[in-house]
Design a protein that fits this description.
Layout (H helix, E strand, L loop, with lengths): L1 E5 L3 H14 L4 E5 L2 H10 L5 E5 L7 H11 L4 E6 L3 H10 L4 E4 L4 H12 L4 E2 L3 H6 L8 H11 L4 H8 L3 H14 L5 H10 L4
Parallel strand pairs: 1-2, 1-3, 3-4, 4-5, 5-6
Helix pairs in contact: 1-5, 5-9, 7-9, 8-9
Amino acid sequence: MNLLLVDDHPLFGAGFAHALEVVRSSVHVQTAPTLEAGLEAAARDASLDIVLVDYRLAGEDGLAALGEFGRRFPLVARVLITGEDVRLLGRQARAAGAVGCLGKHLTAVEILAALDAVLDGGECFDRGPAAASAHRPGESVTTRQMEVLGLIAKGRLNKQIADQLGIAERTVKLHITALLQAFDARNRTHLLVKAREHGLL
């Protein structure tokens, strides 16, 4: 996975890159402090998969920056990243051509699971920590994660799930990790118990 983060906070950018690359060594993260630097980096790298743009980009409108990336690099998926309320920004990000809106409160594992969904052709619109507490767990997981959950309930192993859904086995593992966190479950068996308690199985 080849990522470009456009964020004017150097410490966040360095931490973001390090965290993702530690969780998965095959991930490569470039950082750029301005829209102009980000556009230049994207122009140099034809293998770029996803660009993540900070909503509060110094001197720029993050939403407008998303649109500019879309005009110049229409084949690169675009995701808005923010420390603000993702529930309010999600619709605006979608209108600007983004396939996702992620909060900076997310863990590296959660971000990678979301970005894997984007690479699989999906979307990753975060509901935010407040929404997670206000809704039942099943409302905070993605459609793909629900598919994974259903196959776990049928006793499928990770490799079998990956083959059936046409995704990488590592992606299945990330989806399962996200499910365990969403349901506050200790393991797969506990996950199924929690899912049944919430009427999802």
